[in-house]
Amino acid sequence: MTLVRVAPPLSQDVDLSKTYDAVIVGSGAAGGMAAHVLTSRGLKVLMLEAGKKLPIEQELRSMQWPYDHPRRGDAPPGSHHLSFNEYTIRKPPYAKGAAFKHVYSYVGGWSGSDYVKNILVDEKDHPYTGTNYAWVRARCLGGKTNIWGRLALRLSDYDFKAKSHDGYGEDWPISYADVEPYYDKVDLYLGISGVKENLPHLPDSQFQRPSKLNFGEVKLRQSLKKTGQVLTPYRAGVTTDGLKHNRYRSKCYGRGACDRRPGGCDIHAVFDSPTGLIYPAMDTGNLTVRPNSIAHEVLVDKNTGRARGVAFLDSATRKSYEAKAKVVILAASTLESARLLLLSRSPQHPNGLGNSSGHVGHNFCEHVMGPGVTGLIKELVGKPHTLDDGRPGGFYIPRFRNLKDRQPGFIRGYGYEGNSGHSMFPAHVMDTPGFGGPFKKAVRDHAGAFISMGAFGEVLPRYESHVDLDPAVKDAWGIPVLRFHYQFSDNERKMAEDMVATGREMLEAAGIEVVGTDDKVLTEGWSIHELGTARMGNDPKTSVLNQFQQSHDVPNLLVVDGSSHVSASCQNPTWTIMALAWRSCEHLADEFRKGNV
Amino acid sequence: MTVTRREMLATTAAALAAPLVTPGAAKAPQAASVAPKFFTAPEFALLDELSELIIPTDEHSPGARAAGVAAYIDGRMAESLEPDWQASWRAGLAAVDGLSRERHGKPFLEATPDQRVALLTELAAQDGFFRELKSWTVRGYYTSKIGIHVDQEYKGNVYQRGEFAGYDAT
Q1: What is the ipTM of this complex?
Q2: What is the DSSP secondary-structure string of B84-148?
Q3: Does the CB of B83 have a partner CB in chain A at under 8 Å?
Q4: Which of A2, A46, A569, A584 is the most exposed place for a label (fewest CB within 10 A)?
């Protein structure tokens, strides 16, 4: 089968002498969405991306068989990925003194690391300091959306109004009703697959055709139903029916093997920012993209204190440039946007830009992960192998804790992501003891008979959980790096215990034998869901941004990425990041037309 | 392009017919037709036999020898920039022969099939080099054409039409 591929728009000449309506820093989910909304409203936009524009289909080679790759997908010799042990025993900067040519975050250790070696940053060039943190960064057009896990969930008022529910932290300055229309817009513009479940704590999306559950997953779903719990097919940010308005993306053909390497879909059925948002925005004629542009300061007008542009370095030539704009929009990721604000010190903004509250870099939160269970579905042992991974994900069990009940040990909740069935590589093989004929037969007979699930839990935002600038250490471009002051606390640890115990109960109740449990809480950062650091709020003394992600201090500065989130919820953040960016940029475009910005 | 199980079995019929079963097979290890890049010829022959003992040919599918596991490991060793890792494999293979001499007074490849299985069983209980050997044998085998298509009969990584596999949950 051949798919007609539309080539991305050609790279453009960038005119830095002119003043753009808006300059966007970052090209991931948030930056891409800002570009889409603003250019469709007629604003002239410049997007700065620190990384390269990669020939992404050649990088991903989604359907290459392992045996057609010289190292079966592994990165070349001299590349090293950080392990859980290294993240645990050592302190950042983790690549310091490493004998390897390249050092990558743990994602580079997944099978298929060769396909992401140009997507992930080299830790040698991008150090950070402070407490242990597994910081996964992708510097290239589209950022982490090129390899994301695809789970696309909505938040509810259990999240937006969490303080009203349990008294902890702060409520968001918005409610679900404010965001719902924008979730709908994101769904319809980008495509999402799933099944309606009518849950107040996990609102339904405007779904395209769902992927289906397999035998073990249906078994677990039916068992959970008896106690009022829900297992739903993976809500994937994937277009299963196709998108008539987007010529860069194909619908999903169930090719599967989506998880055998660190993600990536070379027909772009999975949402990624370049094909989903940026290329269509370029086609309007209103968007100019400049890759290889490392922003290091938001420039302010000496007289008014307002943002007037962005200073950046060209990563290839190391030359300095300034981009001028009427509005500056940060979308560099939760941690990089905070870093940029802290780097942008001036007489008017001595603590960093937009930081009169002292909250920039603080209230840092994310998801805790690691704990999970694996079960064996006896009915499937020795059965013919079926096609189970021809889909973008397995299943999701939404949060059930602290909705109506009150757990004694912890507040908030967690959900499970899981999977069952046959995959390209029999994942349980090293847990199968012995060798020889019986070993080989056992691997074959048991392949596809396992079901695994792992939890993602809400980490509470705490003022003391923060990042600041390291006074001494600089990155490869001479820019001060982030220093982490961040650790999980008792609430997360208690929650993690419950994740294992409850997972076990769920499988056992379904008549599935538990054959493995994972008690280990993975290093802070592992979920790649970092949030907070420039939170929204109504009070400029305790928050950085207003409800439209606009700086309280600098009205023509917006931060539209995950740093604006007030709390982490336990739902994966990408879809919420895009819904909020859409809402804020629509508001910005209205104000812009009225001459209020 | 998918290679069906039937096609794979046909192309590997020769591999199925010859090795392991006859005592003579070990004396003339057939996989080392191309000179190894890292291991010496005797080391390679030993590695080839060990991999086949871990994942042997059976009635369902060819084993590690037919899948070229030793050549795959040899290739990874040859391009490695980690001398410690390379040395640990040399030492590991030497220790297998050493144990064989200790127990039976002859190198591993000259031991009887039963003696070899007994030696590997002893090594498997120690969890040292055996775990590394098994790990790389498994990686080499289950990422090979034979491993994916013949043994596992994997059905994915193809464009599907219509709705995909699974049950309707609702």
Answers
A1: 0.92
A2: HHHHHHHHHHHHHHHHHHHHHSS-GGGS-HHHHHHHHHHHHHH-SHHHHHHHHHHHHHHTSHIII
A3: no
A4: A2
**Statement to judge: residues A503 and A443 lie in one domain:** yes
Tell me: do A431 and A479 sit in the same domain.
no
Least Cα separation, residue A372 to chain B (angstroms)? 23
Q: What residue type is A17 in one-letter code? A: S
Domain count within chain B: 1
Name beta bridge partners: A489. none
- Total number of domains in chain A: 2
Best probe of the A interface among B122, B160, B161, B168, by most A CBs < 10 A, is B160
Contacts of B152 in chain A (CB under 8 A): 385, 422, 424, 426, 444, 447
Same domain, A304 and A440: no
Pairing of strands A414-420, A450-458: antiparallel
Q: Is the CB of residue A428 less than 8 Å away from at least one CB of chain B?
A: no
Q: How far is CA A61 from CA A104, A264, A270, B157, in A?
A: 20, 9, 14, 12
Q: What is the mean pLDDT of each run of 10 residues along chain A (597 residues)?
A: 72 91 98 98 98 93 93 93 95 93 89 89 97 97 96 98 97 98 98 97 96 93 96 96 94 82 87 98 97 98 95 96 98 98 95 98 98 97 89 95 96 97 91 96 96 98 98 97 98 98 98 96 97 98 98 97 98 98 98 91
pTM reported for the whole predicted model = 0.93
Tell me how far apart the alpha carbons of residues A333 and A149 are, in angstroms, rounded to a whole number: 16
A356 part of a folded domain: yes
**Residue whose token pair is 């471009």:** A477
Same domain assignment for residues A291 and A385: no
CB within 8 Å: A429 and B56: no
